[in-house]
Write a structure and sequence with these properties.
alpha+beta; two-stranded antiparallel sheet; elongated
Length: 369
Amino acid sequence: MSISLARKNLLHEKLRFLISVGGVAFSVMLILMILALYRGWNEKLGRYVEDVDADVWVLQAGAADMFHSTSIFPLALVDELKTIDGVERADPLIGWRVPVENTGHEAMTIIMGYNTETGAGGPMEIVKGQTPKKGEIIIDEGLAKKIERGIGDTMTIVDREFNVSGISRGGNVVTFQYSFMPIEDAREFMQMEGLTNYALVTFSKGADADRVTAKIETKFPDLGVLTKTTFADNNRKQIMEAFLPIIKVLVVIGFIVGLVVISLTIYTATIEKSREYGMLKAVGAKNRHLYKIIFTQSAIAGLGGFACGLGLTFLSADIIGRIEPSFVTTIAANDVVTVFGITILMILLSAFIPIRRIVSIDPAMVFKA
C-alpha cells in the first residue's frame, strides 16, 4: 500500500519527478566523475615509474620525485654502480619536461632518453611503429592526438626536428605525456654530456635487495635509492595532495545538490497531499505507516537518480575521454559503493522535513469546510 501511494504521489507531477531524478543523477555523476578523475590521475602519475624494468631508481640524494625536485649526477657513477656485488645491470635515464607546438596545438611532454638496447625506461607499450633510432622519437597516443602527429611525421621540439617512429600507450599523465628517444640523442639535445638524471638498477637473481641497497647508499653518499613503489608514491603525492581539498569540496557540493533536489520534491508532494495524509490519520493510520510512504518516495527518486547517474558516468567518461585525452578516469567499484552509500544518506535526510510536516498535520482538518 505504502509503495503504491508513494509512487502515485510522485507520478502525480511527472515533470517534477523527472527533475528530482535528474537532479540526483547529476549529483551522482558529479561525485563519481570527480572520484574517477582522481583515481585516473593517481594511477597514471605513478604507472610509468612502476612499469620500468628495474628494481630500484637511483637519483641524486634529496630528490624525491620527477616533477618537483631535480636529480643530476655524473654519468660515470652509473658504471661504478655496475661494479657493486649484487647489481646485474645499471642503465642511465634522462628526463626533461618541454613544451611542444605543432600545427598550432600546444602540449607538454616529458622526453625520456633511454637505453634502446636494454629497453629500461622506455615506453610501456608501443602500439604502432618501432623503437626509435637516431633522430627519431616515440610519442604517447594522447600527445599524438593533441598535436596531430603520426608515424613518419616530423615534430619540432625547441627548434629541433625529430621523426615520429612510433606511438606508445600508457604515458598519458593528464597535463602532459611521455615521449621517448635514444639516450644519445637526449644527452645531446638536453646538453647532458657526462651527466644523467637517474640510474635504473636491476639486482642479480637471488641477491638480497636490502643489502645491495645499503651497499649503494654507503658507497655513494650523494645518491639516494628508492624502490619503484616508493618513487611512484612520491610522484603521486606531490600532485594529488594539491587536488584533495578541491575534490572534497566538490563532493560536498554534489551531495548538497542531490539532497536539496530530493528534499524539495518530497516536501512539495507532501504539502500538496496534506489533506490526504490528514484523512489517513483520521481513519486510524499510524505515523509509522505515513513515514514509510515518505521514505519510499525518497527511495524511488534517490535510487532512480543513482541508476541514471551511474549510467551517465560511464557514458560521459567514455565520450569525453575520446574527445580529450587528458580526461583520464578510472571508475572503481569501491567508489560506486561509496556513492551508493551517499545516495542512501540523501534519501534518509531528504525525508526528515516532510516527516516533520506529517507529524504536524491535524486529522480534524479533513472535516473542516
